[in-house]
Design goal:
Number of domains: 1
Bound molecules: flavin-adenine dinucleotide
Pfam family, one: GMC_oxred_C
Number of strands: 22
Structural class: alpha/beta
Helix content: 25-40%
Family: Belongs to the GMC oxidoreductase family.
Organism: Lophiotrema nucula
Protein name: GMC oxidoreductase
CATH superfamily: Glucose Oxidase, domain 3
Largest sheet: 7 strands, antiparallel
Oligomer: single chain
InterPro entries: FAD/NAD-bd_sf, Glucose_Oxidase_domain_2, GMC_OxRdtase, GMC_OxRdtase_N, GMC_OxRtase_C
Distance between the termini: 16 Å
CATH architecture: 2-Layer Sandwich
Shape: globular
Strand content: 15-25%
């Protein structure tokens, strides 16, 4: 049997599961290098060195009107193992109501309970040492798997001393409780985040170390490196009437090029919005206007403060996941009501810009999102504290309403396509207002004892640019000049009903096709409050199960 073609973070896991059957031939395609010994990949303390290096795609966005017309850069791994080789390695799953929301959006059978065994199944959690526990590392044993492939735990260089208790005490004064272990579906409060790291060797654990290197010598698994997939060669296409595409007699393609690239491969193959495809001279084979839409990333900003003592060369995975109530305080109910009253207008704005579904569809997604924020009270912001030469507080919004897109734009002289990546940060005013409120909460945190005792003042932005009593307008101008992407892009080939703009069904199969699936961050329909990779692995593991199941069903028929 011909197997799928795929590439990385998620693709390697799927390839691992499918090639376990020696009769299934699996071909992986990866344009990037095999940089398995690159110390900037393997040594977690070097992880910030990878941006703008040869193993980073460094995708540029279109100029962003709400960011002073700046283009922003999306870092993404150009390497076997994809972005799991260059990311921040933090490992926090998402919140129960968010995954349950996928089912409400049409992803039948996808909810917290069905994903939970896969979250645990892929994990090889190692308990913290007594020193790490003293440094704040917590664990609820029920939340973790011990026999999966991906090493999760705390790095040996976890900072000891009293910093974590100081941060915890300060957050508690601000009404944010301490969460021992945020991996059980409630992502809320101050926590010390576990990482994807092998505690014994101290090295990064990635899709490649977990799912590819150990099985790369399987005779039925082939990696084609230095080659990119630009389009799916569609043979035997049956036209619109039956809306069916066949790639070859028995083969199946699994596209896993990440949320910034997967939609463009579909478009180049004739799957997408016919009006866009026609303009590019591409024959439309499957009408799926949702391809490349529903783009969601999280705006990200770093404020830095002068520490009393510098802290070089250690890990400081300290973060608070804050809810609307933590951020807006007494104003929360008013903001919830005002936000609800605006959902229709925002849906109209998004529908008019994206033009792939009408405002009713967007509004129903926004209602779910509003429920998550104000009724289910999931976290809306993550605020991290990293002491080094400065105390850097990086923070990002978790559930923005703005929706961007990624599409083929025009054909270049060499026959490939220019791509437009348009995240549309702050398209919706609430996103900017809540982002500024997060900024203010960060400031308040570092002005509250005992954390305040750790710093002597703000370094960036400087006090003459943003004074401590800065107005919203002053913060707004700083936010416009300094916001960058968090690189947690998802949703551009969403697993949702077709009516809502979905691209894949609950078996991850592209609507209107027979043997094309997508398994990467593109299929996750809504932002997640944790970090993406744990959820991507769980989705990929469940997807592999479904693929194997549907194959054996069709073999039985
Ligand atoms: C700097 C950074 C820090 C992050 N920090 C964290 C973190 O701490 N924790 C966390 O959970 N998540 C984090 N993330 C997010 C997470 O790493 C990504 O969301 C996730 O790895 C995406 O997985 P994917 O399978 O969708 O795509 P990727 O892992 O990006 O894989 C896509 C693959 O497709 C390949 N490719 C590209 N074009 C083509 C083509 N035309 N044909 C074939 N192959 C192609 C790429 O080279 C790549 O190997 C971070 C991301 C970045 C960039």
């Amino acid at each position: 049997m011909h197997g799928p073609q795929a590439s990385c973070t998620s693709g390697l896991l799927v390839a691992n599961r499918l090639s376990a059957n020696p009769n299934t031939r699996v071909v992986l395609i990866e344009p990037g290098s095999d940089d398995r010994n690159n110390p900037n990949v393997t040594d977690p303390l070097n992880r910030d060195e990878n941006a703008n290096s040869p193993i980073d795609w460094s995708y540029e966005s279109t100029p962003q009107s709400r960011l002073n017309d700046r283009s922003v850069e999306f870092t993404a791994g150009k390497i076997v193992g994809g972005s799991s080789m260059i990311n921040g390695m933090m490992y926090i799953r998402t919140a129960v109501p968010e995954v349950d929301g996928w089912e409400r959006l049409g992803a039948k059978g996808w909810n917290w309970d069905t994903l939970w065994p896969f979250y645990k199944g892929i994990e090889r959690f190692v308990d913290p040492t007594p020193e790490q526990a003293e440094a704040g590392a917590g664990v609820n044993p029920e939340y973790h798997g011990r026999s999966g492939e991906i090493a999760v735990g705390y790095p040996s260089q976890l900072l000891t001393g009293n910093l974590s208790p100081t941060l915890a005490a300060t957050w508690e004064i601000l009404g944010v409780s301490v969460c021992q272990d945020a991996n059980g579906g409630k992502v809320e409060g101050y926590t010390v985040r576990p990482m994807m790291v092998d505690r014994e060797s101290g090295l990064r654990a990635s899709a490649a170390t977990a799912f590819y290197y150990p099985i790369s010598d399987r005779p039925n698994l082939k990696l084609m490196r230095g080659t990119a997939l630009h389009l799916l060669w569609i043979e035997h296409a049956r036209e619109a009437g039956s809306q069916c595409i066949m790639l070859n007699e028995s083969g199946e393609v699994i596209v896993a090029a990440g949320a910034l690239v997967t939609p463009t491969i579909l478009e180049a193959s004739g799957v997408g919005n016919p009006s866009l495809l026609t303009k590019l001279g591409i024959k439309a084979r499957v009408e799926l206007p949702g391809v490349g839409e529903n783009f969601q990333d999280q705006p990200d900003l770093t404020l830095s403060y002068c520490p009393k003592t510098a802290t070089p060369g250690v890990f400081t995975p300290y973060a608070a996941f804050v809810t609307a109530k933590d951020v807006f305080g007494d104003k929360t109910e008013d903001i919830a009501a005002a936000t609800e009253a605006n959902l229709r207008t925002w849906a109209e704005t998004v529908a008019a810009t994206s033009n792939h579904v009408g405002p009713d569809a967007i509004e129903s997604i926004f209602r779910l999102q509003h429920d998550l924020i104000f009724k289910k009270k999931v976290a809306i912001g993550e605020i991290t504290m990293t002491p080094s030469k400065a105390i850097a507080s990086e923070y990002w919004s978790l559930l923005p309403f703005s929706r961007g897109s990624v599409h083929l734009h025009s054909k270049t002289a060499n026959g490939t396509y220019k791509v437009d990546i348009d995240p549309r940060f702050f398209q919706i005013d609430y996103d900017e207002q809540s982002f500024i409120a997060l900024c203010r909460l960060t400031e308040k945190f570092l002005a509250t004892d005992p954390a305040a005792k750790q710093v002597t003042g703000r370094i960036d932005p400087k006090a003459d640019q943003i004074p401590t009593d800065a107005t919203d307008e002053q913060w707004k101008s700083f936010v416009k000049s300094a916001t960058v992407p968090n690189c947690h892009v998802l949703g551009t080939a969403a697993m949702m009903s077709r009516e809502l703009g979905g691209v894949v069904d609950e078996n991850l199969r592209v609507y209107g096709t027979e043997n094309v699936r997508v398994v990467d961050a593109s299929v996750i329909p809504l932002q997640v409050t944790g970090h993406l990779v744990s959820t991507i692995y769980a989705v990929a593991a469940r997807a592999a199960d479904l693929i194997l199941g549907t194959r054996s069903e069709s073999a039985e028929q």
